[in-house]
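Retry 2 of 3 after timeout on previous attempt. Resubmitting structure tokens to design endpoint.
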């Protein structure tokens, strides 16, 4: 069995495996890499020089050290997931005989109910984009489409022209794990995206040389960071003082669908959740909302 003098030599091999074999998103790859760099550095300081040297107690010690550093349970659980996958890779590639992370239990995480906007807040956010400037038309199109489809911000900014069919009212997106899914757009978003295409994008990219749907004012593809700034700016103009992010609109999309009678399975498919349990968090949101309404309105609430 192969032995190496430095565990970090395996990191590049593992990242290549994540890209080629697992099809994980760039964001997930980067998060796993950061977690594993910290983990492997910890092992090196403990004198562990090869995969076969690592024991279950080493992993438990590392997770305990993370907790001492005030790393939250959710981040520690993600780190353990990366560690498990890393050692499984080591075993499959015959660098180790077993996976020492298998019996380690994940840190318990408290599932916080996702924040979402009310219908009034959504209207105010859209109204903050009212106007005929290129940026106003584009921003409204992006916000309308995000709320209409529940896309992740990375999915929104990576949308290509060919992936959006306004005639049929559907778009095709590539989600986590490089999985494709079809999502209905909705009439309001269709109209706004159509306006953006005709009046703004056609001017920014008249020859359609850029494949991306949404462009910056310079004609380049929109970045995740740029859209974060857009939604913060529009929320400020709308007088929305609560914390808001692109994911807030995704949460609002799911919550409002369930409140209006959509079934959980359909919402799961539109959100691109691999596990129905992930989608079920929104049923807790709607139940809490109903409970508050009951307490506010019922004479003996």
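Retry 2 succeeded. Sequence:
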């Amino acid at each position: 069995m192969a032995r190496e003098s430095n565990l970090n030599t395996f990191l590049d091999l593992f990242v290549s495996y994540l890209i080629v074999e697992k099809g994980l998103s760039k964001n997930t790859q980067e998060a796993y890499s950061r977690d594993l760099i910290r983990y492997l550095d910890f092992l090196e300081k403990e004198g562990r020089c090869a995969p076969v040297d690592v024991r279950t107690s080493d992993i438990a010690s590392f997770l305990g050290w993370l907790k001492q550093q005030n790393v939250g349970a959710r981040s520690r659980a993600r780190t353990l997931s990366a560690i498990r996958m890393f050692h499984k890779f080591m075993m499959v590639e015959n660098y180790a005989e077993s996976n020492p992370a298998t019996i380690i239990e994940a840190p318990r995480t408290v599932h916080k109910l996702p924040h979402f906007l009310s219908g009034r807040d959504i209207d105010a956010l859209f109204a903050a984009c009212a106007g005929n400037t290129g940026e106003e038309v584009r921003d409204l199109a992006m916000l309308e489409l995000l709320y209409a489809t529940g896309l992740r911000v990375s999915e929104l900014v990576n949308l290509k022209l060919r992936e959006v069919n306004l005639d049929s009212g559907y778009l095709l997106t590539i989600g986590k794990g490089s999985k494709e899914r079809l999502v209905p757009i909705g009439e309001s978003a269709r109209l706004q995206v159509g306006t953006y295409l005709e009046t703004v994008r056609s001017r920014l990219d008249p020859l359609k040389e850029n494949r991306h749907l949404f462009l910056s004012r310079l004609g380049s593809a929109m970045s995740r960071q740029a859209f974060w700034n857009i939604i913060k700016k529009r929320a400020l103009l709308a007088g929305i003082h609560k914390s808001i992010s692109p994911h807030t609109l995704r949460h609002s999309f799911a919550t409002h669908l369930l409140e209006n009678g959509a079934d959980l399975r359909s919402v799961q498919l539109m959100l691109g959740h691999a596990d129905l349990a992930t989608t079920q968090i929104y049923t807790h949101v709607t139940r809490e909302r109903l409970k508050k309404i009951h307490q506010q309105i019922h004479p003996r609430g």
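Attempt log closed. The chain has 13 helices and three strands.
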